[in-house]
Amino acid sequence: MIVRISNEGQYRIPDEHQARLNELDNAVVAAVAADEEDRFHADFEELLQFIRSKGVALGDDDLETSDVIVPPADLTLAEAEADFTGDGLIPD
Q: Using an 8 Å Cβ cutoff, are 21 and 50 in contact?
């Protein structure tokens, strides 16, 4: 799976990490649904760090199509309400 973090870059996430990626996405959805700002920021940062640490960064000249586009790190809770709903960003 190719995940793009907006304003940052693309990462190839190995198959063995996709279940955990989905769990983290669901945690962000739950925090947004509960309107818990501190929890949202913590969960969203954990999601971003997971992508960065477990993913393999793609070079700028690698033109892969992103399977998922994650909003930028400075996303606010209000902005997240538009993206993190239902099943979230990461497909099951």
A: yes
